[in-house]
Design brief:
Elements: E1 2-8, H1 15-28, E2 33-38, H2 43-52, E3 57-59, H3 66-77, E4 82-90, H4 104-111, E5 115-120, H5 127-138, E6 144-152, H6 155-166, E7 173-179, E8 188-189, E9 192-193, H7 203-216, H8 219-225, E10 257-262, E11 267-269, H9 272-280, E12 283-288, E13 302-305, E14 307-308, H10 314-319, H11 321-332, E15 337-340, H12 342-346, E16 348-352, E17 375-377, E18 382-388, E19 394-402, E20 414-421, E21 423-425, E22 433-440, E23 443-452, E24 455-458, E25 461-462, H13 469-492
Parallel strand pairs: 1-4, 1-5, 2-3, 2-4, 5-6, 6-7, 10-12, 10-13, 13-15, 15-24, 16-18
Antiparallel strand pairs: 8-9, 11-14, 16-17, 18-21, 19-20, 19-22, 20-25, 22-23, 23-24
Helix pairs in contact: 1-2, 1-7, 9-13
Length: 493
């Protein structure tokens, strides 16, 4: 399988739009394109899925082991002609300034993919070559096979850029010079681009994007650049000593259980590998919508509420009283439920209608409510209110250690994830049990992971690939609940 990484010199260089255009052009050539995204992002993979018709898989070298990244890359790309991987931030940007963990460069080395560097050429001419030279020489183990200049002002501007890179004598080829074009702008908001659920790309957008790529990018050179290097790309990988991979392949067993996963416009942030690992542990994934459905799916033994934008659909979620009552009832009955970020917000008393400002800090109650602001009422398992903020509340990688047994595993389990939100809650009462101790770069951030019966909720998006036993533990918790429910039904009859 060929593979390329579309990387940028910085965030906002245009790599998402260019990646989508390349994917669409390759697909129209009759090629099977396997999409991937470096890092913990949920929004870009949605657009990848729209264009390619396949789930886009996150590759993260900080949250997951090198073995897991290699294995999931080969697994999801096994039937493809080419893997197209969109990078995150700048090529070498990761968790810190003195290490590569979490960076696009790290993934390039792990999976052996050549890098195509996207350079925003606006307000640059020959200086752009110095930038390319610096990126090419920063880490010799990362192979930059080509450059795409974006926001090129004219044909003459493009000629200067090409001549400057050719003069380096490095062998790096300019694959294309893409003109400035406001028609290729994708709307965004505080967490990044608008989700594909809200902003499905219109046909005319894709047609114009394809036209721009075909007219200004040498797809033949791009295809030639995608030759793997550096590692053996074969399955199965050898067993790594001491590593619990948790990947035994799809499970066929008589005690397979059903887990309801919320997936709609309000709840769309979930790692595809989390769902894969649940399936491999013996779960059937049944999707449902807290926005549209009146009831939970029949016959389920557990619930997974991923993140998303519940605050944008607060009216509809609040008005769906039958769904809220069912979720509340199932939690009270002891059904295992795992919720993260937006899913966690859905389990609180509700969300304030308007952004909260620091000037109003003294006007809130202990649970976080603010007099005078309307409240969209949610499920109410956790006795706090959520407020949206004008500024970002939290961003970054997190490591957790379980301080108590939970539906995701025993005390002592260590897992990794990511946190990113513009909301905050009132102080959680002490009677609500905590399950995690959270750290960032070895700095203790306190406790989190709130429990109510068999419900576990957190602001963190945990990647099950960071500790694959979590998926199996969740499925086993659901299986025990289903077994106990069956025994109770037999006794009552």
């Amino acid at each position: 399988m060929k593979s390329i990484i579309i990387a940028g010199t910085h965030s906002g260089s245009g790599k998402t739009t260019i990646t989508l255009g390349i994917m669409e052009c390759l697909k129209r050539r009759g090629l099977r394109v396997a999409p991937f995204k470096v890092g913990p992002d949920f929004i870009d993979p949605g657009y990848h899925r729209l264009v390619t018709g396949r789930p886009s898989i996150n590759l993260d070298g900080w949250m997951c082991s090198e073995y897991f990244v290699q294995e999931t890359f080969s697994r999801h790309g096994a039937d493809a002609d080419i893997a197209v991987i969109e990078g995150v931030m700048g090529l070498f940007d990761g968790i810190g300034g003195n290490q590569e963990a979490g960076s696009t460069a790290q993934i390039a080395k792990i999976v052996g993919a050549p890098v195509v560097l996207v350079v925003d050429a606006k307000s640059q001419a020959r200086s752009a070559a110095a930038l390319v030279k610096g990126f090419a020489e920063f880490d010799p183990q990362v192979r930059i096979a080509g450059v795409i200049f974006n926001n090129v002002g004219s044909d003459n501007h493009g000629r200067i850029l090409r001549d400057a890179v050719d003069a380096l004598g490095s062998g790096i080829k300019v694959l294309g010079c893409l003109p400035r074009d406001e028609r290729l702008h994708i709307p965004s908001r505080h967490l990044g681009l608008m989700t594909v659920e809200e902003n499905p790309l219109p046909a005319e957008f894709l047609e114009h994007l394809v036209e721009v790529i075909w007219d200004n990018l040498d797809l033949g050179l791009l295809w030639a650049a995608g030759t793997p290097y550096g590692i053996e790309q074969s399955l199965p990988f050898p067993q790594v000593s001491g590593l619990d991979t948790g990947h035994a392949g799809p499970v066929s067993r008589p005690d397979t259980i059903s887990i309801a996963v919320a997936r709609d416009n309000a709840f769309c942030f979930v790692y595809e590998d989390n769902l894969r690992l649940l399936r491999e542990a013996g779960a059937e994934i049944v999707e449902f919508s807290p926005l549209r459905d009146d009831r939970l799916p029949a016959g389920i033994a557990g619930i997974y509420l991923p993140g998303g934008y519940p605050e944008l659909f607060a009216d509809t979620l609040a008005e769906n009283k039958t769904m809220k009552a069912e979720v509340h009832m199932m939690i009270e009955r002891g059904m295992p439920l795992y919720a993260e970020c937006g899913g966690f917000i859905y389990l609180t008393k509700g969300v304030m209608a308007d952004p909260w400002s620091s000037q109003q800090a003294d006007a809130r109650t202990e649970s976080g409510e603010q007099p005078g602001l309307p409240l969209h009422e949610f499920v109410g398992i956790f006795p706090v209110t959520t407020r949206m903020l004008a500024r970002r509340k939290a961003l970054g990688y997190r490591q957790v250690e379980f301080t108590a047994d939970s539906i995701l595993g025993p005390a002592g389990t260590v897992a990794r994830g990511h946190e990113f939100h513009y909301s905050e809650m009132g102080e959680m009462p002490s009677r609500i049990k905590r399950s995690y101790r959270v750290s960032k770069n070895d700095v203790d951030l306190g406790t989190e992971g709130y429990r109510s019966k068999n419900c576990l909720a957190s602001y963190l998006h945990l990647h099950f690939g960071s500790s694959p036993g979590m998926a199996a533990a969740f499925v086993e918790s659901c299986r025990k609940f289903a077994g106990a429910k069956k025994k109770k039904s037999i006794k009552s009859n």
